[in-house]
Amino acid sequence: MLETPRKFTVVSGSAEGPSRLNAFDNALLAAGIGNLNLLKVSSILPPGAVEVPQLDIPPGALVPTAYGAIVSEVPNERIAAAVGVGIGADGDYGVIMEFSGRCSREEAEAEVRRMCAAAFEARGRALDRVIVAATEHRVREVGCAFAAVALWY
Amino acid sequence: MLETPRKFTVVSGSAEGPSRLNAFDNALLAAGIGNLNLLKVSSILPPGAVEVPQLDIPPGALVPTAYGAIVSEVPNERIAAAVGVGIGADGDYGVIMEFSGRCSREEAEAEVRRMCAAAFEARGRALDRVIVAATEHRVREVGCAFAAVALWY
Amino acid sequence: MLETPRKFTVVSGSAEGPSRLNAFDNALLAAGIGNLNLLKVSSILPPGAVEVPQLDIPPGALVPTAYGAIVSEVPNERIAAAVGVGIGADGDYGVIMEFSGRCSREEAEAEVRRMCAAAFEARGRALDRVIVAATEHRVREVGCAFAAVALWY
Asked: What reaction gets catalysed by this protein (chains A, B, C) (predicted)?
């Protein structure tokens, strides 16, 4: 099977760019995750995975990543993205939730906290805490807000 | 290279949730696939892969998965999702097709059957049978219908 | 960790199909990449990766792939997709950009060239050249234009 990740790092960043994809690319660079091959996952924290503050991964590596992103071309619009990692009281697997929208960073963060709480309730498990990363951005021309949980080894 | 999957399991499920992503998460739980890291693939059944009725995968594992999903926030709307695995008469690789829409389970199932037939015709191969999983859901507030083929080891 | 790809192949293709997903599937077949499990990546060329003109990968294999695709059901509409691989003067990692839209092949190609240039500028690196694949298609009923960089081993 594909090796299950053992580490995770929570990041966020916002940026402008000359195109939608460049804005996304620049937001990844701002988040410190721009030179990797992100594989989007849907999105469980493996049991025993350890949080590491900084990514230490060579460029071009394949990195399973749960993320939320929004790109806007509406000048002056406020956009935000957040991720939350719900950690259980029982030491079992965690649940990762992503959100992005036309709102503030605080609203995005509150939303992923609610989503993590609901995910634990749906599983009948006690939620201990939620690790959050969130960002907001005021669009100039083409802007992107991006938040992610990278799962690595 | 990344190891080619040798097993597959076909699942489906529908659910409500307090947000779009929670509805999706709950539909995955209803389908029995909620505690994994789904890697969305586009979507071929490896030659020789064996159907296994139940998933037996530890939480947080990376699982290549072909899936169709629809989320709706329109009360009383009927939504459906289906997957089909087209199996050839020749024992070679199969083709996986996904569909979701605002329709009945029967319509979604018929659609993936048609799509698998067309995929085999495009390859000039004889289709032996189609393995299908399908689900429909009547939305209350925020609902999701989800159908998937998990590829594992 | 997941093994980092060491080869890459740039492809493109367009096709019609009886459904949106069949059109996509047929465009993949036209591009010579139809019988693989594409894992969508976001999208860096690993340092030292070597371009190989033809894919040599068994069916059903998991293949990290950066791609742009557009499906249209508007008769007579022109659609296009392009990918660009920006290669640096320094031999370090490259940057892959994807684009698809309702435009000509030349416009799609020019767009990915601009995007690769911007991605190198954002990184403060000198761009040596851009390897491009692009395709355009005039829709009859349901058409798809697809361009990709497959990363393999």
From this structure: L-arginine + H(+) = agmatine + CO2
